Amino acid sequence: MLDRPLRVAIVGAGPAGIYAADALMKSDKAKDRGVSIDLFERMPAPFGLIRYGVAPDHPRIKGIITALHKVLDKPHIRLIGNVHYGSDITLEELRQMYDAVIFSTGATDDRTMNLPGIDLDGSYGAAQFVAWYDGHPDFPRDWPLEAEKVAVIGVGNVALDVARVLAKTSDELLATEIPANVYEGLSKNKAVEVHVFGRRGPAQAKFTPLELKELDHSPTIDVIVDPEDIHYDEGSTVARRSSKITDQVSTIIEQYALRDPKGRPHKLFLHFFESPVEILGEDGKVVGLRTERTELDGTGNVSGTGKFTDWELGSVYRAIGYLSDNLRQIPFDDQAGVIPNEAGRILDRGEHMTGMYTTGWIKRGPVGLIGHTKGDANETVDCLLDDMLAGNLLDPSEPGEDSIVKFLESKDIPFTTWDGWYRLDKHERSLGAATGRERVKVVERHEMLAASEPHKVQEYNS
After folding, report:
1. Among 322, 338, 353, where does a domain finish?
2. Domain ranges, residue 139
3. Scanning 30, 82, 164, 236, which has its CA 20 to 30 A from the CA of 378?
C-alpha cells in the first residue's frame, strides 16, 4: 500500500460525478489510505444537468443542489472548472497525475430521429431549447418563438418541461432564475396551443406523477386529453398492476380526459396513439405534422392502423431522449450511446482499460431519475477500490496534489474553483435580490469567469 492518498480524477461535475466523489470519500475500503479527488468540469460552474438541464420552474429538483453542496464542501474534494477534457487536458496527461479516472460527462445532445422533414426550419431538438431557457453559455442567446401552434414529440419528463415552458407566460417564469435574454424571448412567444404526441397509450408514458400534475398548476394552461385516447390492453393492465408510478400516471391522464376544459387561454394537448411519420414543410419551413393512428396489440406495444392525420403546426420539438458525446481516446458505443463498460470498468475491445471507469448516463444511457445515479456511482466506486486493493490501478509519475495546478498554469488555462463557485453564487443571488428574486443566472462565460475570479495559487496552497 502506498503511503499517499489515492488520487482520482472525475471528469464531469454533475450529479453523477459528485455522487461518485461522495461514494469514494465514504467507502471503508479507502479509509486506511485516504482519497484525494479532483472534479473536472468544462463549465465554469458545477452541477451539470441540475443547472443546465432542469426547467427553471422546478425548485424541488433544484433543491438537490443543497445535497451536492455538502459533498463539494468536504475536504479532499476539489472543483476544477472551465477545463475541457480532450482539448485542455488529454487522457495521457490525466494518467500521469492520477491513479484512476472516472468519466461522468452525462448526455447533453439530442438523440437523432429518422423522420422526413426533420431538417426543416422550425424543427428543433429539445436539448437545444432546454439549454437556451436554462442560460447555457455555449448556446444562442435568442430563440425563435413565432409559432402559434407547436408540437412536442415524446412522452417523458423533458417533453413535459418543454411543453410547459412553451405554454406558460413569461411573467409566470419571471419569479425563477431565468436570465434577462430568456425572459425577453419568452415574452415574445406566440404559442397558444402546444400538442404533445406519444405513439403508445397512457400506461406506456414515461412521465412521473408529480411532473404530470404540475402541468395543471398554471392559471393560464388548460390540459386537455381526448377520452378516445384512454385505452388499455392486457399488457397495459399488467404494467399498471406492477408499477405504482405507472398506475398513478394513467389515473392522472384519465382525470384530465374526464373533466371539462377550464377555459384558460393556452391549451396543452396530450395526444396518445399518434405516431409521427412526417414533419410537413412549405418553402423550407415547418407547417405541420403527419401522424398515424396506432392501436394496442395486447402486449402494451402498438401497430399502425393506416389512418393518418395532418396537424397544422408551426414548429416541432423532438424530446425522444438525450445522447452522450463521444469522448476522445475513450471507446464509445455509437448505437447505444454509452461508453462500453462492465459494472463501471471501461472496456476496450472487451478488456478493462486499467484505471479507467465511468458512471451516470454515459455509463448506462439517459434513463431514470437523478437519484438513480447514486447506485451507478456506488457500483463503479466499488470496482475502482477493489482494483486498488488488488494493485490494478495506474502508476502516475506525478501524483502530487499540486501537479494539476502547475500543469494548468503552464498552459495558461483560467480554471475555476469551489471558492469561485461561492463567489459566482453570491453574485447571481445579488442580481436576483435587486429584482426581488432568489437568483438571476449569469449566461455569458466571460461574466461567469469574472464573477468566479479564476484560480489564484494561494487558494490551493492555503
Report:
1. 322
2. 109-322
3. 82
User: What's the rounded Cα separation, in Å, for the pair 460 and 439?
Assistant: 28
The DSSP 8-state label assigned to residue 5 in this structure reads P
Domain tally for the chain? 2
C-alpha cell at 34: 485516504
451: which 3 cell numbers?
464573477
Residue keyed to cell 398548476: 217
Q: How far apart are CA 246 and CA 301, in angstroms?
A: 15
Q: Closest by alpha carbon to 39, among 25, 53, 27?
A: 25
Q: What is the pLDDT of residues 370-380, one digit of tens each?
A: 767 888 999 99
pLDDT at residue 1, rounded to an integer: 53
Q: Which three cell numbers stand for residue 87?
A: 482539448
In 74-177, which ranges are E strands? Answer: 77-81, 100-103, 109-110, 123-125, 149-153
At a CB cut-off of 8 Å and minimum separation 6, what does 411 contact? 88
Residue in 141, 121, 117, 126 with CA at minimum distance from that of residue 54: 126
Report yes or no on 398 lying in a domain.
Answer: yes
Distance CA(308)–CA(298), nearest Å, equals 22
Residue that is last in its domain, among 262, 287, 322: 322
Computed on alpha carbons and rounded to an integer, the radius of gyration of the chain in Å comes to 24
Three cell numbers written together for 410: 503552464
What CATH number is given to the structural domain containing 172? 3.50.50.60
Does the pLDDT at position 462 exceed 60? no
DSSP E strands in 319-350: the ranges are: 322-323, 341-342, 345-348
For 292-341, the pLDDT digits (tens) are 999 999 999 999 999 999 999 999 999 998 888 889 999 999 888 899 99
Q: Are 89 and 49 in contact (CB under 8 A)?
A: no
Alpha-carbon span 153 to 278, nearest angstrom: 12
Task: Retrieve residue 152's grid coordinates.
Answer: 412536442
